[in-house]
Amino acid sequence: MMQPLPQLNISLYQGDDETAIIEVIDERGKYADFNGYRIDADCYDVITDELVWHLSSKTGEITTAKGRIFIHIPHHYTEKADWEKLAFDLQLTDPNGKIKTIAQGVFSLENDITQAYGQN
């Protein structure tokens, strides 16, 4: 029987540089080894179903180190955003092209107070 995917809830503040850190332990209880893997996350607006971001280790928004996945969201990704929530899944592609989804999640955007009051 398939285990349910972990559900990630990541809060972002509009216009800030953010990094989400996801720790991954393999079936042996060890830190997962991502050497040779590509990691991708397609992020869709939950209201419009439109693709907003494609984040990838290939393009640099996703990096790894010792069992950890770092999802980097630069401030220019959110500073003019008009969405409130993005749904995504986190997929690994092994060196042979085999794809495995390891988690699902939601990015929630908190509005920038400074921008809301015309300070920028």
Describe this structure in words.
- This protein has 120 residues and is mainly beta.
- 3% of the residues lie in helices and 48% in strands.
- It has one helix spanning 113-116, and strands at 7-13, 18-23, 38-45, 51-56, 62-65, 68-73, 85-93, 99-110.
- The strands form two sheets. It has a five-stranded mixed beta sheet, with no helix packed on it. A three-stranded antiparallel beta sheet has the order 2-6-5, with no helix packed on it.
- A hairpin with a 2-residue loop joins strand 5 and strand 6.
- The longest helix is centred in the C-terminal third of the chain and has 4 residues, at 113-116.
- The model has no long low-confidence stretch (mean pLDDT 92).
In short:
The chain is 3% helix and 48% strand. By secondary structure, the chain is mostly beta strands.
| Main β sheet profile | 5 strands, mixed
Mean pLDDT: 92
Strand percentage:
over 45%
The CA-CA distance between the termini, in Å, is: 52 Å
The low-confidence parts are none
Q: Count of DSSP helices?
A: 1
- The string of secondary-structure elements, in order, is EEEEEEEEH
Q: Count of DSSP E strands?
A: 8
| Secondary structure category | mainly beta
Shape: globular
Helix percentage range: under 10%
Strand order of the largest sheet: 1-8-7-3-4
Round the Cα radius of gyration to an integer and report it.
Answer: 16 Å
